[in-house]
Structure to design on (329 residues):
């Protein structure tokens, strides 16, 4: 269903997102962003792309994420500029590269290939996965898969993911063999095997997400001992989609670990905000107010608390069909 907003509503969203009055709270700016993302229009792309001069890495990485999810090739020049800016926060550059993968235009492949040796591990790993994803989208399996999706297909998750689930779980049709203990264990082994290409490990990750049982959550949580921050932040993101209370202990451990990468802790905080069980709130408050915690972690907790409050209220301000509950990347 196409949602129409008036020019003045659009202007209000832009003013809010870009904090033109200089006193808009970060979580309020996020809400404007989610609304623009839900509009999926060329106007949204233009407005969102204006936000990249902001000082908040958290906000900017979310802008890039939303541009990828909107999926319009008109966002590619802005994303490329972000990826090319070596002074930009790696989390933002990562998200720009991932968004290019989500938009999946073959013209992005040579650009992404330029960054396969980037000094930032999360950037080069993202580019590797994004190239593999664009190639997969254009492969026989990928084309067949995309052709099989029509208006009556109800996806398990509406996000455009950095990798499709493993072949046998592509459309979310779970057969008993896949969800069996042995099936989950097979996927877990693939997930944690550092000798396999990251794209293949990601496919196992998204297969486990689609299985979604407590055993699959445990299998995913075992990925938190990996060395790649990128890999771990994606697991935390998936936990934010799964909303399984079973993942709370592992997410709290990640959030509270000062030696863990900011990107992973950020994603854990937001997943906890989405799961929104009572025991997570004091931890989110604690880290939001910790002066010596990294800015990204503090700001993520602020956004997460807004998500938590949204989940725990009867708030229907989003019920205007523009957006559902905020899902942050
Ligand atoms: Fe990310
Ligand atoms: Fe994120």
């Amino acid at each position: 269903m196409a949602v129409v907003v008036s020019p003045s509503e659009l202007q209000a969203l832009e003013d809010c997102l870009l904090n033109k009055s200089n006193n808009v709270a970060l979580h309020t700016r996020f809400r404007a962003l989610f609304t623009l993302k839900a509009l999926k229009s060329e106007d949204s792309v233009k407005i969102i792309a204006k936000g990249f001069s902001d000082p908040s890495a958290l906000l900017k990485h979310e802008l890039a994420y939303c541009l990828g999810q909107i999926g319009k090739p008109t966002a590619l020049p802005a994303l490329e500029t972000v990826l090319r800016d070596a002074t930009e926060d790696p989390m933002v550059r990562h998200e720009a590269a991932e968004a290019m993968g989500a938009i999946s235009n073959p013209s992005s492949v040579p650009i992404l290939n330029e960054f396969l040796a980037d000094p930032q591990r999360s950037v080069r790993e993202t580019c590797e996965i994004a190239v593999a994803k664009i190639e997969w989208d254009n492969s026989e399996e990928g084309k067949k898969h995309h052709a099989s999706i029509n208006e009556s297909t109800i996806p398990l998750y509406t996000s455009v993911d950095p990798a499709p689930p493993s072949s046998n779980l592509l459309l979310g049709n779970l057969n008993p063999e896949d969800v069996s203990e042995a099936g989950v264990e097979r996927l877990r082994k693939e997930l944690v095997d550092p000798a396999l290409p990251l794209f293949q490990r990601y496919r196992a990750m998204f297969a486990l997400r689609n299985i979604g049982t407590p055993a699959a959550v445990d299998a995913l949580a075992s990925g938190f001992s990996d060395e790649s921050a990128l890999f771990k932040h994606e697991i935390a993101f998936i936990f934010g989609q799964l909303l399984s209370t079973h993942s709370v202990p592992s997410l709290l451990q990640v959030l509270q670990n000062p030696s863990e990468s900011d990107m992973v802790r950020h994603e854990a905080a937001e997943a906890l905000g989405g799961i929104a069980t009572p025991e997570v709130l004091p931890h989110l408050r604690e880290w939001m107010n910790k002066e010596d915690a990294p800015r990204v972690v503090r700001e993520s907790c602020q956004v997460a608390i807004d998500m938590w409050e949204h989940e725990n209220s009867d708030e229907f301000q989003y019920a205007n069909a523009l957006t559902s509950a905020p899902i942050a990347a």
Remarks:
- Residues 61, 266-267, 329 surround fe (ii) ion (ligand 2) (CB under 6 Å).
- The chain is about 60% helix and 0% strand.
- The chain has two domains: 7-137, 162-311.
